[in-house]
Amino acid sequence: MAAHVAHTPKQSTRNGRVCYFDLCQDYSQGKASKDELVAYTVKRAFNDVIDRFHVINGQKVDKKFYVDERKTNKGIRLTNELRQLVLEQSGADLTPEIESRWNLVETAWGLRLSRNLVAVGHDFDTGSLIVTKNSRRKNVTSSRNALNGYQRGKCFFCFDHISIRHNHPVVAHVDHFFPHILKSDGFGELINGVWNLVLSCPTCNGSGEKGANVPSLLLLHRISRRNEYLIESNHPLKETVILQTGKSKKTRHEFLQQTYNFAQETLINVWHPIARGDPTF
To answer: Is 29 helix (H, G, I), strand (E, B) or coil?
Structure first.
């Protein structure tokens, strides 16, 4: 936290000063010791976090990563769900994914914009998510890292194992659901929108069959579910997906269907992958 505060002082959506972040800033500037920061963290920093972590959109999630035992055992007890998450093949991707989400929110704060006003784009050449303000482009984070959460280390198309680590033998490709070739067929920059980006394995992305063909209707339903997940889970890319595809679920569904119809009229051939793993989303 102190490292993040050092380069982006604002780390809260609350009005006014927040003592914990002030102390983190003092620590990063050498005005407070590590022992002071640790002692305050143990005593005060998690008062809100522990109670709110398992709540999304006002609803408690089914799986718990810890049990609050501060009143009975003066701490929290980690659960097997957390252990399982770390032991999964995608466990090593958790840190870069978390950093990526954090960077998206910090970019909004750094630009002095409401998170709701940040429109995130994709740079096809660098594979990065970008934000443009006053005609200046700012690289925010790796597209791989930002998109990984929903797919949990699986190819969007065939469910084969992938990784977002650059040195991994099966590193994920940032792929366009509707083929990038549509950009020159009247679709423009919208084809590079976050709503149309998925992570795929090298086989699917390099498949001659997939190429410039239209994904099947089953896959269309899959991309729709993914986009709704980004919105409903309050992911940092939520507002960008809404801005690009529509404010209501009905509008977004119509947008995808119209895009599908246009793509099929333009590209004609339909493609569906061979499953290489068990469906997980």
So the answer is: coil
Q: Which of 268, 271, 249, 245 is nearest to 258 (CA)?
A: 245
Instruction: Find where tokens 């890292």 sit.
Output: 145
Instruction: Identify which of 137, 144, 141 has the alpha carbon closest to the alpha carbon of residue 99.
Output: 141
pLDDT in tens, 162-188: 988 878 888 898 899 999 899 888 788
Structure tokens given for 22: 């002030």
Q: Hey, which residues does 132 pair with through a beta bridge?
A: 137
CA–centroid distance for 140 within its chain: 12
Instruction: Note the pTM of the prediction, 2 decimals.
Output: 0.72
- Residue 238 CB coordination number (10 Å): 18
Tokens encoding 221: 């339903």
**pLDDT surpasses 50 at 126:** yes
54 vs 61: CA distance, rounded Å: 6
CA distance 222 to 218: 6
**Residues 164, 148: Cα–Cα separation, whole Å:** 7
Distance of CA 113 to the CA centre of its chain: 19
